[in-house]
Amino acid sequence: MMTDTRIDAKTRQGWFKRYTDANRALIQALRAREEKDWEKRLEEVREYRKKATQLESEKLGMETTDQPQQQEQS
């Protein structure tokens, strides 16, 4: 379209503006989607770490309570 010599400059300019605007809108939509996906992934990682930390602290709590009981039984 841009290199077609049969089309006048005004038509080419209008086409180029519409093309550029459409391209810009698509890029913005893709960036918004990527940002949303990254936020979702980050939230999943945070939840996983939170659960892992809770499980680890529960294990440590159980180990410390188990040790005195074992000594008492001996």
Question: How would you describe what is shown here?
Answer:
With 74 residues, the protein is an all-alpha fold. It has one domain (9-66). Helix content is 88%, strand content 0%. It contains one helix and no strands. The longest helix has 65 residues, at 9-73.
Quick overview:
This protein has 1 helix and no strands.
How many strand elements?
A: 0
Report mean pLDDT, rounded to a whole number.
Answer: 85
Question: Roughly how much helix do the residues carry, as a percent range?
Answer: over 70%
Structural category? mainly alpha
Span between termini = 90 Å
Low-confidence residue ranges: none
Oligomeric description of these chains: single chain
Shape annotation: rod-shaped
The profile of the biggest β sheet is: none
Number of H- or I-type helical stretches: 1
Cα gyration radius (Å): 31 Å
Strand content: under 5%
Please tell me the total number of domains. Answer: 1
The sequence of SSEs as H and E is H
